[in-house]
Amino acid sequence: MESKINLQNLTRENIFQIPEQYFASLPSAIQKRLAEASNTALNNDKPLLEYSAIEETTIDHIFITPSDYFENLYQKIQSKIPNQSDSPIKLNLSALDGFESELGNKHGHTVPENYFETLPNRIMARVASSETTKSLDFEELDNAESGILASIPKQNIFQIPDNYFEKLNIQLDEDDVIEESTSEKTKSIRLIPSWVRYTTVAAASVLLLMTGYWFYSSTTSSSQECTELLCNLTDEEILHYLEKQDTRLTTTQMPAISTKHTDSEIVDPIDISDEDILNAAEGIE
Amino acid sequence: MEDKQILEQFRIAETRTAAFNALVKKYQQKIYWHIRKMVIDHDDADDLTQEVFIKVWHNLGEFRAEAQLYTWLYRIASNECLNFLSKKKRASLTSIDDVVANELSQKLDEGVLISGDEIQIKLQKALLRLPDKQRLVFNMKYYDELTYQEISEITGTSEGALKASYHLAVKKIEEYLISN
After folding, report:
1. Do A277 and B20 touch (CB under 8 A)?
2. Which domains does chain B have, with CATH numbers?
3. Does ipTM top 0.85?
4. Hey, is the C-beta of A175 within 8 angstroms of any chain B C-beta?
5. Which of residues 112-151 of A touch B (CB under 8 A)?
6. A-B C-beta contacts closer than 8 Å
């Protein structure tokens, strides 16, 4: 069941929005468009048919400016930009002083002493710091110690007990001696009688020889069979078979080139990756 | 004694101990100070220095001189330091890095076997606020004056990353020194 929309019950709302400052900038936008159109027409040396309305109502007629407005405009703008000679990043300290006193008077807030005097430098330091993290200049990185750190003499503040290094040698020597003496002078205690050991060794040797003979004879016979079968194959058949096979070596089939470790692998890897070291550069907490 | 000679003599059973003694005498100070700057406490540094050389004794036979001997030693020492500090953090039963940094900082204040004026102590305290790996790199560059290439060989990190790390470490240290 359809319900009827009663207009009277609807509130009157403007659902359309405009860009910010639209109306404030509209006159100048129109003025600009008009000027552009006029210039284009003149440059094209056209009869200005389509601009007849403009010709009839010239800019001067639509918008009136105070006398000498444009002559004084630049000076007016300049007068509203204090300390123009300063860098745009630097703050106007005199304006801040006023602002500070105003805040202090009206809201009772205070700032640390010389807060605003040092603020520009601190901001610049932060800006420089953020720029550094974004793009790294390696020439600059080479000269990292240019500030306070460069002024501090490199000094070893740590001390060691008297004759420490001499004692360190002795300690290590003792360790070595202990290790070597234990390895050289190790005594073995015979828990099993010697005749039992000899019998066991002899029995194991016989068993090993028998196993070896059986293995040799079985592989020889099978290899002989294979040789006979291969003799029956033609060269073409063998080549055809090899073409069909993937003859590349797999990693498991490849003979080990070197099983030795590299020097860096002898001890535990230190494992400081680039990412690691840069993440570690988060800094002082 | 040259490194090459030490290595040659170490491979011969009769001259092994003498070669090792020569190696220890040659490198003990470098290794000790590298460790001491990381762990601050002398007793800890002493233990670790000995651990390093014991490890060297056990592994030098396999060393094939692909790298410089001292970079290999630094590598072992650095590893020992990082492992030690990592264990210390785990033992503190908290994940907060500050606990260990504060403990080491306190040792600086206690001044046992420590000299130096206020600014030097403050610099060490600033260093303790850096993450261990960054501190390690900083020490090797700043105090030991190793090149980035050498540090790269020791840590396995690229020179670019090391430069960036060092640069940022310096910034952070200076910020700390200004604010404290």
Report:
1. no
2. 3-179 (1.10.1740.10)
3. no
4. yes
5. 129, 132-133, 136, 138, 140-142, 144-145, 147-149
6. 189
How far is A127 from chain B, CA to nearest CA, in Å?
13
Pair of tokens at residue B12: 């011969």
pLDDT digits (tens, 9 = 90+) for A3-56: 444 545 555 555 555 556 555 554 455 445 545 655 665 565 554 444 444 344
Helix axis angle, B42-59 to B16-39, nearest 10°: 140
SS (H, E, C) A40-53: HHHHCCCCCCCCHH
For residue A226, is it within any domain? no
Angstroms from A184 CA to nearest CA on chain B: 12
Q: Which amino acid, residue A219? A: T
Give whole-number Cα distances, A268 to B7, B52, B117, B148, in Å.
21, 12, 38, 22
**Number of structural domains chain A divides into:** 1
Residues in chain B with CB shorter than 8 Å from the CB of A180 are 17
- Asked if residue A120 lies in contact with residue A91, where contact means CB atoms within 8 angstroms, the answer is yes
Q: Could you identify the residue written with the tokens 């503190």?
A: B92
Q: pLDDT tens across A191-210, in order?
A: 555 566 666 777 777 778 77
Rounded to a whole number of angstroms, the CA Rg of chain A reads 47
Q: Which two tokens stand for residue A223?
A: 């290899």
User: Token pair for residue B148?
Assistant: 């980035």
Nearest by CB to A283, from B121, B156, B168: name it: B168
Ramachandran angles phi, psi of A159, nearest 5°: -115, 160
For residue B42, give the nearest of A138, A160, A172 by CB distance.
A160
Running along chain B, 180 residues long, what does each successive block of 10 average in pLDDT?
93 93 93 95 94 93 89 95 91 71 88 85 93 94 94 92 92 89
Structural domain for A135, as ranges:
87-142
> Measured between beta carbons, which residues in chain A are less than 8 angstroms from residue B73?
none
A168 contacts B46? CB cut-off 8 A: yes
Q: Report how far Cα B138 is from the mean position of its chain's Cα atoms.
A: 10
Q: How far is B87 from chain A (nearest CA, A)?
A: 15
**Residue among B24, B54, B59 minimizing CB distance to A169:** B24
Asked whether residue A97 is domain-assigned, the answer is yes
Instruction: Assess if residue A44 is contained within a domain.
Output: no
